[in-house]
Specification:
- This protein has twelve helices and 16 strands.
- Helix content is about 30%, strand content about 25%.
- It has about 350 residues and is an alpha/beta fold.
- It holds the Pfam family dCMP_cyt_deam_1.
- Pathway: Cofactor biosynthesis; riboflavin biosynthesis; 5-amino-6-(D-ribitylamino)uracil from GTP: step 2/4; Cofactor biosynthesis; riboflavin biosynthesis; 5-amino-6-(D-ribitylamino)uracil from GTP: step 3/4.
- This is Riboflavin biosynthesis protein RibD.
Length: about 350
């Protein structure tokens, strides 16, 4: 078998835990000796043993003289767990094959250097493109100290997110609803504006996914006009963080007594996206799923902090000047000033089109 074969297995192991390791990366490890897989593992949750440790525990004494395939450079520092590079050295492995090098300044080549200094043969870059894509959000988070932002919308073919009086009405098929909820499992938080809460009263939970993992619900509410009878306030299924401007009334803040509800007042009268994302980064939110209305969508797009867009397009046309567009005014007055995108992936989901794109 080839290095690519075993690394493919390690990547599949890593992918199983996608969405549940934040603020840590997803990592898979496979240990091979004499053509036989003798150990494997994945990092499942922050603070729990890393993939290499699970694999070494399975391999036991047989790890000596083996080859280890790991999707991300083994750590070399003491955090919530001991350094994996040292564990590999102490186990007597002969060779380590790595897909991605870790950009974390606490690692950043130190794990590789540590193992090579100990006499272990280290090879890097095997299936690197796949491994980098798998941890794209972690790499962004560790370098920028802000969440990786996905802006998701479901629209008609003519770019509307609602008809004139149709807030809360589904635009896309049930297959898209399933796809969206499965995506929600992979994110640490879902964000909407207060307008969406008032119009739709959404739960903002994962109800159709494969696990019961629930994202944090984040509401942008500049003046704290949130009623106390909305689902995000009363159901307690997941934490609800309401971000307000600096002039939100103290008595209104004090009126929220629910243990799962947190009011976070920012430093300016209006909500600044840079400050918002900085605060979320401090709170270890690594992946953010934005499902806002036209105003929130425009604010994020103009901020420059959108890492990717997921757009579901239904084969429907609404028309009219009063239907709700995907974006509020973006201050684009001529085509040369338009926000330019690159399509990364296009697929059919049920009868609808799903486009994943990035800003150029």
């Amino acid at each position: 078998m080839t290095d690519e074969f075993y690394m493919d297995f390690a990547l599949k192991l890593a992918q199983v835990a996608e969405g549940q390791t934040a603020p840590n990366p997803v990592v898979g490890a496979v240990i091979v000796k004499d053509g036989e897989i003798i150990g494997f593992g994945a990092h499942l949750k922050a603070g729990s043993p890393h993939a290499e440790v699970h694999a070494l525990q399975m391999a036991g004494n047989r790890a000596k003289g083996s080859t280890v395939y790991v999707t991300l450079e083994p750590c070399s520092h003491y955090g919530k767990t001991p350094p994996c590079a040292m564990a590999l050295i102490e186990s007597g492995v002969r060779r380590v094959v790595i897909a991605s090098e870790d950009p974390n300044p606490l690692v950043a080549g130190n794990g590789i250097a540590l193992m090579r200094d100990a006499g272990i043969e280290v090879n890097t870059g095997v299936l690197k493109e796949r491994a980098d894509a798998l941890n794209e959000a972690f790499f962004h988070f560790i370098l920028q100290n802000k969440p990786f932002v996905t802006l998701k919308q479901a629209i008609t073919l003519d770019g509307k997110i609602a008809a004139q009086t149709g807030f809360g009405e589904p635009i896309t098929s049930s297959e898209v609803q399933q796809d969206v909820h499965e995506d929600r499992e992979k994110y640490d938080a879902i964000l909407v504006g207060i307008g969406t809460v008032l119009a739709d009263n959404p739960s903002l939970t994962n109800r159709l996914g494969k696990t019961e993992k629930q994202p944090i619900r984040i509401i942008l509410d500049t003046h704290l006009t949130m009623p106390h009878d909305k689902k995000v306030i009363i159901d307690g299924h997941s934490p609800t963080w309401i971000f307000t401007g600096s002039e939100a009334a103290a008595e209104k803040i004090a009126s929220f007594q629910q243990p799962h509800v947190k009011i976070i007042k920012l430093s300016q009268p209006t909500i600044d996206i840079t400050e918002l994302l900085t605060e979320l980064g401090k709170r270890q939110v690594m992946k953010l799923y934005v499902e806002g209305g036209k105003t929130v969508n425009a604010s994020f797009l103009k901020s420059g902090y959108v890492n990717q867009m997921i757009t579901y397009i239904a084969p429907k046309i609404v028309g009219g000047n009063r239907a709700v567009p995907m974006f509020a005014d973006l201050d684009v007055r001529q085509m040369t000033a338009a926000f330019k995108l690159k399509f990364k992936h296009v697929e059919m989901v049920g009868e609808d089109l799903k486009i994943t794109s990035v800003l150029k």
